[in-house]
Amino acid sequence: MRWSSNLVTVSGTESPQGDYFNDNISIGSFHAVSRGILVVASVGNEGNQGSATNLAPWMFNVAASSTDKDFTSDIVLGNSANFTGKSMSPFGMNASARIISAPEARSGCFTPYQSSYCLESSLNSTKAGGKVLVCQHAESSTESKLEKSTVVKEAGGVGMIFVDEADKDVAIPFVIPSAIVGKEIGNKILTYINHTSKPISKIFPAKTVLGSQPAPRVAAFSLKGPNALTPEILKPDVSAPGLNILAAWSPADGKMQYNILSGTSMACPHITGNLQP
After folding, report:
1. Shortest CA distance to 45 belongs to which of 64, 66, 67, 21?
2. Please, where in the chain does CATH 3.40.50.200 lie?
3. Which residue ranges of the chain lie beneath pLDDT 50?
4. Reduced 3-state DSSP string for the chain
5. Which CATH number is associated with domain 69-210?
6. How crowded is residue 194: how many other Cβ atoms within 10 Å of its Cβ?
7. Model-level pTM greater than 0.90?
8. What CATH number was assigned to the domain covering residues 7-66+215-246+262-275?
């Protein structure tokens, strides 16, 4: 405030949302707004209907939406079936390879259920080596999808098909040829594996698809209204691009100059930038 700011952007939330007089962000933003400073805040990620946060009526509340740009990777099975998944992996397979479900490559001390999620150390390199693995991801899971591709790579896997129960359209820059599919496509791939003596597959490098429709649409992970504290005041106020956003990256956090992230924390700065006089 002492630097004569016109705007404050808050890409953060307190969950669950507290009442206006006890919530830190609500109190701090009130002091800012009372001095003529607009506060723009993200609505938050991952939750049920009516779990939106940063609900104070004096804050501008931002949800995340998609753009018309999609990042996809093609999967071709040995029976010529072709499926499209989400991915930002620049890596592709030169030739088809044997495809198995992750439990088939489980390490001795892990159950088939645990190995199906490609947890760290859960895969046997002798069984996984040279193969494409089908890994699961639970809707409520907080495990890193990127790290799971590292687990498969370290076990000698040459590719990964990632079955995401939530199917949130988030693309990941995997470290091996990989693609994310929803439960419906995942079940079709597993059926092919279970009913074929020597199932094979090939995963192609990710590509950018322009003109994807419908767009914009609210991202699946973006928290939704209605306003749990004051239902007569609609929240979120607005949505902005927050799905698969490419931006500059701090050198203090790795060697990358750019990164691609998804979340309402990506959407919030879009609105702040547009409101800057």
Report:
1. 64
2. 7-66+215-246+262-275
3. none
4. CCCCCCEEEECCCCCCCCCCCCCHHHHHHHHHHCCCCEEEEECCECCCCCCCCCCCCCCEEEEEECCCEEEEEEEEECCCCEEEEECCCCCCCCCCEEEEEHHHHECCCCCHHHHHCCCCCCECHHHHCCCEEEEEECCCCCCCHHHHHHHHHHCCCCEEEEEECCCCCCCCCCCCCEEEECHHHHHHHHHHHHCCCCCEEEECCCEEEECCCCCCCECCCECCCCCCCCCCCCCCCEEEECCCEEEECCHHHCCCCEEEECCHHHHHHHHHHHHCC
5. 3.50.30.30
6. 9
7. no
8. 3.40.50.200
For the stretch 27-42, what's the b/e string if a residue is b when 16 or more beta carbons lie within 10 angstroms of its beta carbon? eebbebbeeeebbbbb
Other Cβ atoms within 10 Å of 98 Cβ, number: 14
Residues 148, 160: Cα–Cα separation, whole Å: 9
Tens of pLDDT, residue by residue over 94-135, are: 999 999 999 999 998 899 999 999 999 999 999 999 999 999
Report d(CA 193, CA 98) in Å as an integer.
Answer: 10
CA distance 151 to 122: 8
| Confidence (pLDDT) at 56 | 95
Residue intervals in the chain for CATH 3.50.30.30 = 69-210
**pLDDT for position 135:** 96
Looking at residue 1, its pLDDT comes to 54
Among the listed residues 57, 51, 58, the one whose alpha carbon sits nearest the alpha carbon of residue 222: 51
What is the side-by-side order of every strand in the sheet holding 7-10? 7-10, 38-42, 60-65, 238-241
> Which residue bears the tokens 């669950």?
16
How far CA 114 is from CA of 107, 111, 138, in Å, comes to 10, 5, 11
